[in-house]
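Annotators were shown the component list below and the corresponding predicted structure, then asked to write short factual statements about the assembly.
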Amino acid sequence: MNEFDYIDKYFRPLTNEFALNLKNDAAIINQKSSFDLIISTDSLVEGIHFFGNEDPADIAKKSLRVNLSDMAAMGAKPLFYNLSLSVPKVKASQFIPKFVKGLQDDQKMFDIKLIGGDLTSSLKHINITITIFGRSSRGKSIPRDGAKIGDCLYVSGILGLSKIGLDNYNSNFKEFQEAKRKYLLPQPRVDLGISLKNIANSMIDISDGLVQDATHLAKNSELTVEINLSKIPLPNINKIDKKLLLDSALYGGDDYELLFSCDPFYENKLVKLSSKMNLKLTKIGIFKKFNKKFLKFKNDNSNPKNSYLHF
Amino acid sequence: MNEFDYIDKYFRPLTNEFALNLKNDAAIINQKSSFDLIISTDSLVEGIHFFGNEDPADIAKKSLRVNLSDMAAMGAKPLFYNLSLSVPKVKASQFIPKFVKGLQDDQKMFDIKLIGGDLTSSLKHINITITIFGRSSRGKSIPRDGAKIGDCLYVSGILGLSKIGLDNYNSNFKEFQEAKRKYLLPQPRVDLGISLKNIANSMIDISDGLVQDATHLAKNSELTVEINLSKIPLPNINKIDKKLLLDSALYGGDDYELLFSCDPFYENKLVKLSSKMNLKLTKIGIFKKFNKKFLKFKNDNSNPKNSYLHF
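Structure shown to annotators:
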């Protein structure tokens, strides 16, 4: 099969009307002036973001989900996506059908469709780049720079699980199954993101560890965020000591939980939302006037470390 | 420098207001209901689409230009683009500044800006994925499936030069300089594409050789296109025999000329347009009722060969 056969057989069935059956050089989107179009791109690179020996369906889902998580962080409703896939020639016939099955499943789960992209070979490693498109009412998406003095810092779910899953990827211990699952298949908090539209005034998804992403919010809002380490929601894994769990939460990547600031006024609303969505929402810090550092730990003078950096 | 430093120093200056200073998870586009948004993605992969030892500025320009060419093929005006760049750690500090300089130059030349993207490391090879956005008046972009029986097939510029440049990439002969330049830096026919909006009824840019791309037009329009081999505009290179020149035009890639169908009624208009734009526009074939094959050569029963296929 050549690339046109793959596109015909596997990718065309994933598309919506904007893709024009993948027969054009481009997709055509009917713009709606009452909405903003929200656009984000994330790449997953073999050897950097994934090992390469995972089920291709899981790799596909993770590629979509990290992008869906970016839509969640904007409070946007995901609509459709563009995919560029580069695969070594020798892997294509095994990889593509399973990869497409993963896309198909998650397209249903998250109600999105493919609108176009590019399929090429590569010499050695797989590279997946997805550009995702979402919408929000004009001017209503949630920025990264809207936190105010006195705002609370909230986080969804629990943190650090994904890093534990990655560190114990080759372990067969039952205790690590949930963590490994979370590492392989994060849950983008799309519904939560949309529900926070009139509550959160700044938001980010935690892809690089709590410290790095909380620093982004504080820096963009030109404030200091003070995090209460004892409040951080950690996983319950007996095999691992608390210190390592906390470190995974602070500096580990791939959690894809939402981190947001809001006025303390919304505390009760968030309690109700948490129970309605059956999803933990935890107040872990507070925003203060900028003082020397963008991020501090409450009652703890230790200096935050760096999270994963590509370069 | 880590990825945030690179983004701050090199990529932020390339952006427009939609990028929100690259401080958000996504770009926000104000939609305009009188326009369609045209979206296309092309990747350039080291070892497949480029050698890797080219000037990074030229690699940047080619990445943009192959995408601009997709906008040209739709008759769309390019507006902005999204970039995902994966670079091995050891190459980043040398590659990124020069690559960005290339983007900067071509942003000016083609009046487009960066709105977002992703910057990651990779293990071995560079991967560049650009998603480009353009606009055309609602319902006015040029499809691939609009050719009618009796329509003429036209092509811009000359064909095959890029393939000659690639084949003689390591030659220092003066005769190949123009060809090598065309291979490294194609000229996307953006202005021509827009000018053809009320003339061409189907169009494609030639990225995979005349035969493959003319077949796309015929197949999508469910017709047979008959190409007159003696009319194909070939480069004038004495060192290379006519047979090889013709082969390069038919099956060589990377020409990025526009190939389009139109009613013979527009013949005079195209003569004037050609002279106004100082760009050759040549009638090389005709569309007929479908008969056995999508593409035939006039007075020549030889079977077309395959162009480059990734898989």
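Statements collected:
1. The domain at 3-137 of chain A is CATH 3.30.1330.10 (60s Ribosomal Protein L30; Chain: A;).
2. Chain A touches chain B through 69 residues (CB under 8 Å).
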